[in-house]
Amino acid sequence: MSNFALTTTLRSFVPKTISTFPRKFGTWVALFSLKSSLDLKLRFKPSRLIHMENKESSSSRGALIVLEGLDRCGKTSQSGRLYKYLDEQGHSVESWRFPDRNTGVGQMISSYLANKSQLDDHAIHLLFSANRWEKRSLMEEKLKSGTTLIVDRYSYSGVAFSSAKGLDIEWCKAPEIGLLAPDLVVYLDISPEKAAERGGYGDERYEQLEFQKKVAGSYLSLRDSSWKVIDATLSIEDVEKKLREVVLDCMITCHKGKPLSQLWPC
Predict the structure, then answer these.
(1) d(CA 147, CA 249)
(2) Of 11, 136, 170, 226, which residue is most buried, by most CB within 10 angstroms?
(3) What local confidence, expressed as pLDDT, does residue 46 receive?
(4) Domain residue limits at 242
(5) Is the pLDDT at 91 greater than 90, yes or no?
(6) Residue 185 maps to which CATH number?
(7) What is the pLDDT, as a whole number, of residue 13?
(8) Within this chain, do residues 45 and 152 fall inside the same structural domain, yes or no?
(9) Between 16 and 50, where is the model more confident?
């Protein structure tokens, strides 16, 4: 069969209604194509957008939360309760404490605090700082992996206690420069007199009322925008509730990609 005959035959099978379609048929086709394109965009995100979302997700990290305050203010109890709550909620979280008495440096500090050894004030300050530097790399690794760290005492304690002994506060800060800055410092506020009324007070070297008054003054000079102050004389449950609120807000900010920073940059 010739091409002309084949074409003529095929035309005979084309429904006559097609020849009566309105001239706007092309417009309908264009609208249908646009709708299909929009549907595809809703189901399949452009590669550039996927890349941006992955980039944001990769910068997500854990939060560095530090609890500070005078001796017997309730830091250790609240750290434990906060850790338990976050862990039960499914968050990746660890509870840390300084000094870390499990390291070689930490054991020297522990002996000193228990009044089993004597050290120059400058020397013990540097040991406290060295104890924090021992954990610096691990701390950064944990945070970047998405783990939130609840830390009972940090550099602020070291500076507050040493400066309360009469050491120059800037000298006390110097060994801490370069350590990671907390995302949040929660200061559990209690008067030295009220703290002295709590059980176990006086068991360690620094638990002396007049000295704790000086420590309170040193803490006051260290406060900055990262600090939140909670009344430590409230009930345990009320302190815990306030603590959860500020910590969860901080964790959300860090999850969104807040960059890590360092303590007291020059």
Answers:
(1) 15
(2) 226
(3) 40
(4) 57-255
(5) yes
(6) 3.40.50.300
(7) 40
(8) no
(9) 16
Say yes or no: 163 and 212 in one domain. Answer: yes
Work out the number of other CB atoms within 10 angstroms of the CB of residue 245. Answer: 12
Query: Could you tell me which residues come within 8 angstroms of residue 210 by beta carbon, excluding any fewer than 6 positions away?
Result: none
Is the predicted pLDDT of residue 47 greater than 70, yes or no?
Answer: no
Q: Nearest 10 degrees: CA dihedral of 156, 161, 162, 167?
A: 100
On whether residue 3 sits in a domain, the answer given is no
Asked if 106 and 99 count as a contact pair (C-beta separation under 8 A), the reply is: yes
> What is the number of domains present in the chain?
2
Long-range Cβ pairs for the range 256-259 (8 Å, 24+) = 256/56, 256/60, 257/56, 257/59, 257/60, 257/61, 258/61, 258/183, 259/59
- 214-265 pLDDT, tens per residue? 999 999 999 999 999 999 999 999 999 999 999 999 999 999 999 999 999 8
238: three-class secondary structure by DSSP? helix
Q: Kindly report the backbone phi and psi dihedral angles of residue 208, in degrees, each rounded to the nearest multiple of 5, phi listed first.
A: -130, 130
**pLDDT at residue 58, rounded to an integer:** 54
Whether 68 and 134 share a structural domain: yes
* Run of H or E including 140: helix 136-144
